[in-house]
């Protein structure tokens, strides 16, 4: 199953938290919300091993709304001035990796569902169903059909 992938921003511009937040708050006030992508998307708060990746589903003015905390890293309190940016995260990598694997599986399944290139009826001496005597269509005429339809004397008489 395909994983949701979120748009990035070239060079990962940063903004900052404009008012402190606690570990359970589901809104994040920013100085400049235009420095993060439109919702839904991911951003990372912080710049070191304590960083927290969040998922937000909306933007109202300079506030991220519908925030799911701790998508990566622990949900903790963040103070004014904490850096916020749309960085490439482990979640982004894992979603990409899973989507490629899913795509490869779908291609493999589709290839396994198609007819084989070397059908036993089209290798060696090809065979085909023999039409009934009197058939007049674009269907393949086998040698058996021809023999059943015409005798040698019929062919000689037409020459």
From TrEMBL:
Skewed-composition ranges (Low complexity): 123-135
Name this protein carries in UniProt: Uncharacterized protein
Lineage of the organism: Bacteria, Bacillati, Bacillota, Bacilli, Bacillales
Region entry Disordered, spans: 101-136
Biased composition (Basic and acidic residues): 101-116
